């Protein structure tokens, strides 16, 4: 559950939640539109299933668009879906990498600060600093 909250938190901070919500609305509107114009798709659930197969590029073939309007809507939905489905993981990964860089920079700044103020540190603080240096050496 926590991972889902972190994911949505990242989307919200990067305003990608608006893109996801917009896509969700467009998906449902497209499903409704497809249901209206396609003679072989009679129920909204069938239309949602068709739109899902278009967006995921699975294309099961159990429902197909035969009208020009339905095919055009399918093309637009497919392109929009590919863009959104590629964009969101990229934003999340980029955000995560920025967080990692910031934490590393803060950690390095703190470490350098301690090195510059060795004479002010207690024996316990010096011992902790020594352990940190040993951990860094072991990682290399």
From TrEMBL:
Gene3D superfamilies: 1.10.287.70. Residues 25-96 form the Potassium channel domain. Keywords: Membrane, Transmembrane, Transmembrane helix. The lineage of its organism: Bacteria, Bacillati, Bacillota, Clostridia, Lachnospirales. It holds the Pfam family Ion_trans_2. It comes from [Clostridium] hylemonae DSM 15053. InterPro entries: K_chnl_dom. The chain crosses the membrane at residues 20-37, 49-69, 75-97. This is Ion channel. It comes from the Bacteria.
């Amino acid at each position: 559950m926590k991972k889902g909250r972190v994911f949505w938190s990242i989307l919200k901070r990067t305003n990608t939640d608006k893109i996801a919500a917009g896509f969700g609305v467009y998906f449902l509107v497209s499903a409704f539109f497809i249901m209206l114009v396609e003679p072989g798709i009679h129920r909204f659930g069938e239309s949602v299933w068709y739109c899902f197969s278009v967006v995921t590029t699975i294309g099961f073939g159990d429902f197909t668009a035969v009208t020009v309007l339905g095919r055009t809507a399918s093309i637009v939905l497919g392109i929009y879906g590919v863009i959104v489905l590629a964009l969101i993981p990229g934003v999340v990964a980029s955000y995560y990498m920025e967080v990692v860089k910031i934490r590393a920079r803060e950690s390095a700044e703190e470490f350098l600060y301690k090195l510059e103020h060795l004479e002010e540190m207690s024996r316990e603080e010096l011992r902790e600093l020594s352990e940190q240096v040993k951990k860094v050496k072991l990682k290399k």
